[in-house]
């Protein structure tokens, strides 16, 4: 889908929030539905993708519903991944920065976060691919491959070879240019098969050489045998043309391709092993010679009461290469590849990676999240899941977002009426929730970024002005530097601004959150806010499991330079579908924390590290842990309860509007009592 921007109405802009358990707030306002920070994993339109019939076709011509050859996203309980049919569920065109990846099997253009399956079975994004010139000894940039991709566009030589191969394989031809045909003694040419696709191809190819034939019934069939159709001609002039076409043996690559394809459609089979059969050896030797010129190895076999066989040597990858190079017409003969294991696959070293700037790219979503592109095993996009997505399916679909979950990152519906609705809500609201943990604070936002573009920034400014006028405490959480345009209203005692800054590495950020502003830009914004006198905090979350004690020290030392009032922390959560999405994006570290036990162990380890680092830097008092109740049983109950629902050390103006009203009411009651 294309990027969808629009608006949506909202009745109640001010929602009570459960985020008090993290010390964040008692209320939340979400300026919009959706987000434009979504990750995309795209390929160039001319990329060849492998369909389930094992034919390579251009990505730019793909349609929703097309069936591709995919494979298991993760290794199964049998250790291996297996080939699967996969359906295209969504397609989006856009312009993105991309790289040209040069490998041993060809080139492909992809965005930085597009995932590739390396020969060790790990997902690796484009940004992490290293070329052979960089002397990587671990081989991590050697990718799994099914061989070079080849676009099927039949040439004249291919068609001639196909007609000849089909005739040699299963054709009947009675014609001699020197014979005289008269009466019942007539020439004829016929090919009869149970499958319709090769016959349709024959009709099409023969017409190009001015030979017109039709498909007609040949054998009705019974319980044991399938029915068959035929293409046939008894025209002497057409048989004469056919005679010269079939005997016009060409020594070209395309003729050889077509000949092998035609012969396979006539006498080939694939049922675990790929074979071509014939009663006589000369034609099998011809097929073998042609096929071996493409690098295939065939072995001639002969069994009792059986024809001679040519058996393809190699695993499923050689079978896929056979079908993709020769492009036979019969679809069912490739079905047996489904369910086969991805073992013995060829490898393709990355030779070079060249930045191209911004180019046209296409992003597809498949049902298995996998497919093959330009010969390489690859992954499509992943998207996050939020409560808004799960609970607002119908409303979002009415806006043209057919799959809110899958299209995350591609739509933003701004709630333009929030300022108006909020003003009215506050004028009528008599009670204001104020828990010891949430402190009556209003958070902007929990489900989207309030400053992700200028439209949301404008509404955020209006909203903050209304909350400030009503003396409400405001907490802003963003990844965008746009908030520095509002420094004139944000440097107030009852407003605190925070930014998500789990790490300070721009390259790592490009892999985890590629569409978000890099950490360096976020830190610059915090520096400007500090200089303007804003109250600040930092969400050092979520941190990946690769971070060490030294990493935490370096981060905290830099963070303390902008003097935040509080530093929130929690590690990344890779349990359930979160972990699968991360691995899909090439974030292999997620595999180490996908179980509850491994996640808890990492949580505890990093918890100890971040506290030790904070003590070393001198900011332990500002560190605020965001624990998870799921840690029960892994962490001492007293320690867990200490942080659950713990207020932050932040200080606010002593009186909110509700407190002022309560105080004035008490004063008024006292005065009335005195008068009495």
What is the structure about, briefly put?
The protein has 676 residues and is an alpha+beta fold.
Topology:
Elements: E1 4-7, E2 15-16, E3 27-28, E4 32-35, E5 48-50, E6 56-58, E7 67-71, E8 83-103, E9 106-111, E10 115-117, E11 123-125, E12 142-145, H1 156-170, E13 171-174, E14 188-193, H2 196-208, E15 215-219, E16 228-233, H3 236-246, H4 253-267, E17 268-270, E18 274-278, H5 281-292, E19 298-302, E20 308-312, H6 316-326, E21 346-366, E22 370-373, E23 376-379, H7 387-391, H8 393-398, E24 411-414, H9 418-428, E25 442-444, H10 454-469, E26 474-478, H11 487-490, E27 495-500, H12 506-512, H13 519-531, E28 535-543, H14 549-559, E29 567-571, H15 577-584, H16 596-617, E30 623-625, H17 637-643, H18 657-675
Parallel strand pairs: 1-24, 3-25, 25-26, 26-27, 27-28, 28-29, 29-30
Antiparallel strand pairs: 2-3, 4-24, 5-6, 7-8, 8-9, 8-21, 10-11, 12-21, 13-14, 14-16, 15-16, 17-18, 18-20, 19-20, 22-23
């Amino acid at each position: 889908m294309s990027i969808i921007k629009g608006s949506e109405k909202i009745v109640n802009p001010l929602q009570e929030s459960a985020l008090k358990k993290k010390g964040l707030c008692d209320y939340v306002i979400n300026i919009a539905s959706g987000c434009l920070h979504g990750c995309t994993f795209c390929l160039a339109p001319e990329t060849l993708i492998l369909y389930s019939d094992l034919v390579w076709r251009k990505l730019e011509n793909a349609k929703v519903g097309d069936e591709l050859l995919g494979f298991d996203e993760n290794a199964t309980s049998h250790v291996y991944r297996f080939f699967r049919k996969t359906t295209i569920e969504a397609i989006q065109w856009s312009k993105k920065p991309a790289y040209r990846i040069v490998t041993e099997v060809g080139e492909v253009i992809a965005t930085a976060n597009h995932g590739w399956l390396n020969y060790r079975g790990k997902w690796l994004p484009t940004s992490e691919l290293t070329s052979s010139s960089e002397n990587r000894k671990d081989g991590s940039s050697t990718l799994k491959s099914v061989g070079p991709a080849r676009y099927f566009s039949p040439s004249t030589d291919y068609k001639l070879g196909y007609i000849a191969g089909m005739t040699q394989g299963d054709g009947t031809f009675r014609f001699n240019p020197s014979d005289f045909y008269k009466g019942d003694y007539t020439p004829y040419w016929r090919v009869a098969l149970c499958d319709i696709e090769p016959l349709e191809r024959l009709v099409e190819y023969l017409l190009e050489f001015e030979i017109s034939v039709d498909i007609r019934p040949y054998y009705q069939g019974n319980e044991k045998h399938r029915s068959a159709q035929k293409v046939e001609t008894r025209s002497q002039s057409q048989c004469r043309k056919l005679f010269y076409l079939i005997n016009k043996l060409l020594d070209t690559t395309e003729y050889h391709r077509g000949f092998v394809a035609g012969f396979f459609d006539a006498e080939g089979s694939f049922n675990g092993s790929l074979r071509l059969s014939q009663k006589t050896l000369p034609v099998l030797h011809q097929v073998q010679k042609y096929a071996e010129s493409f690098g295939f190895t065939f072995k001639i076999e002969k069994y009792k009461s059986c024809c001679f066989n040519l058996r393809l040597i190699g695993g499923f990858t050689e079978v896929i290469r056979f079908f993709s190079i020769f492009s036979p017409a019969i679809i069912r003969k490739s079905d047996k590849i489904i369910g086969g294991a991805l073992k013995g696959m060829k490898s393709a070293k990355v030779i070079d990676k060249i930045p191209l700037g911004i180019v046209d790219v296409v992003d597809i979503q498949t049902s298995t999240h996998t497919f093959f592109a330009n010969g390489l095993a690859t992954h499509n996009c992943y998207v996050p899941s939020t409560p808004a997505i799960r609970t607002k399916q119908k409303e979002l679909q009415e806006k043209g977002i057919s799959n809110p979950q899958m299209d995350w990152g591609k739509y933003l519906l701004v709630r333009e009426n929030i300022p108006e609705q909020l003003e009215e809500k506050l004028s009528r609201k008599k009670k204001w929730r104020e828990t010891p943990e949430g402190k009556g604070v209003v958070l902007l936002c929990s489900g989207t970024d309030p400053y992700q573009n200028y439209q949301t920034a404008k509404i955020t400014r209006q909203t903050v002005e209304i909350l400030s006028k009503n003396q409400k405490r405001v907490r802003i959480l963003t990844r965008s530097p746009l908030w520095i345009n509002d420094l004139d209203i944000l440097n107030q005692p009852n407003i605190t601004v925070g930014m998500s800054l789990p790490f300070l590495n721009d390259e790592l950020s490009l892999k985890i959150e590629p569409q978000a502003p890099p950490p360096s830009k976020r830190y610059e914004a915090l520096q400007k806010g500090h200089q303007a006198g804003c109250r600040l905090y930092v969400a050092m979350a979520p941190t990946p499991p690769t971070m060490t004690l030294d990493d935490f020290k370096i981060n905290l030392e830099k963070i303390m330079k902008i003097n935040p009032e509080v530093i929130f922390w929690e590690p990344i959560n890779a349990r359930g579908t979160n972990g699968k999405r991360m691995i899909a994006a090439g974030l292999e570290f997620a595999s180490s924390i996908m179980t509850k036990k491994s996640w808890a162990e990492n949580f505890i380890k990093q918890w100890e590290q971040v506290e030790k680092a904070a003590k070393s830097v001198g900011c332990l008092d500002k560190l605020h842990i965001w624990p998870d109740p799921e840690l029960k049983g892994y962490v001492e109950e007293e320690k867990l309860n200490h942080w659950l629902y713990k207020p932050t050390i932040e200080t606010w103006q002593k009186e909110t509007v509700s407190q002022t009203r309560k105080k004035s009411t008490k004063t008024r009651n006292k005065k009335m009592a005195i008068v009495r």
